[in-house]
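Example 3.2
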Amino acid sequence: EDARSVGVRLPAPLHARLLVAALSAFDGACPEAVEGEAAEVPDDAAAHLRAAALAAEGLVRDGHLRGFAPPASLFSVAWLFLRLATVPEASREAALVGTDGIRDFMGSSWQRAGREALDRFGSQRGTTVLPPGFFRALEAFPAPEAAEL
């Protein structure tokens, strides 16, 4: 938010690193969400989820998810959507306040974002560093769609 307030557009890898760091912190602070359904989100975990939503919003706002978005960014966004699907609605809405761009991106579907990332994987030059937390999250997630990805 600081960069945005002074008109600075951050590079996609920085937004993605912030997103992954916030989601990793969320997973550590709210293990119930990792298991599939969190009945309650502690305040510290909610702050991490909010930070993740803001980092993802930065990816959208700065145009990094338009056109041919990097697979690592899409996997990170899919991880955010997966986590948002496991928390109570009130926690989800609190995390997404003022983030209309990411809320509307791919219908907030972790399945859609994950499939799009898979389709793009290997089609870009350079090394793609994938968010390992997303794949751990998929392994723990009880939905059959997670096993497909």
